Structure prediction request, 118 residues.
Amino acid sequence: MGESLGGPYAAVPDWPGRDASDVGHARITAFLVLDIQQSLEKAEAVRNCILGQAGLDDDDSDDNEIIMNAYGVSVGPVNCVIEPAFDETGEAPVSVLTTDLLAALERRIADIKRVWHE
Prediction:
């Protein structure tokens, strides 16, 4: 479960099925904290990209790639790759299940709406 620092959000995002020892889940957590933050618009934009990618042709590869402040996400039907937006970080790209990223985003959206949009 996500730990809290006393504010309205968990300091460590949590979602159904999250495994803190999983490298992919750790990268999803970093993506949520550093890039999505408390932004409903950002979270919904990434979620919509994931939900819409099934209808994309191979020629639309730019439409399934999202570059944010810390990370870029390449969206695929089964896996997404979350990699640093800048090569200088020394971090390797990490492949995550698209369903895991979507579950994390859905929970983040619900948390943001619960706190800011009640």
Residues 1-6 have pLDDT under 50 and may be disordered. Residues 23-116 form one domain. The beta strands are 65-67, 71-75, 79-84, 94-97. The helical segments are 23-36, 40-52, 98-116.
